[in-house]
Write the structure tokens for this entry.
Amino acid sequence: MKVLWAPWRMDYILSQGKDEGCVFCQGLKESEDEKNLIVWRGEKAVVFMNRYPYNNGHLLIMPHRHIGELEALDSEEVAEIHQLICLSLSALKKAFNPDGFNIGLNLGKTGGAGVLDHIHWHIVPRWEGDTNFMPVLAETKVMPEHLNSTYQKLRQAFLEESQK
């Protein structure tokens, strides 16, 4: 039997059920963007890397404001979130050249939201063949790159793409 090590998953497992406030708001308050995996800050919205990604480059786009309902967004937040989704796509294409993307929003616990009260969009880069027998049969996902390396690539790509 082969053993795949994913020690970062233990952080996720141990953090479940802990109510320490909003993880996104906490990261926004701090100035340590790399530690908090914030790759881009806008005036009203922000782009985080997902700490527990489905694929390398999995991003989360959200308003700065702590709101959980789509209809609570104001028009400026909606516009900036859309702009950041587009910027994120350009940066991901530059950094990783994916074959496609999944973009989505989970609302409410039953809808699959992991963080219920801070609305956020997921962008998951996809590559041909990125789903194989591991997640289907072994309930295991192989991540080919460390989060810190992914952060550095994405941060540089965001800087370059934002200048266009």
Observations:
- The first strand starts at residue 38 and ends at 41.
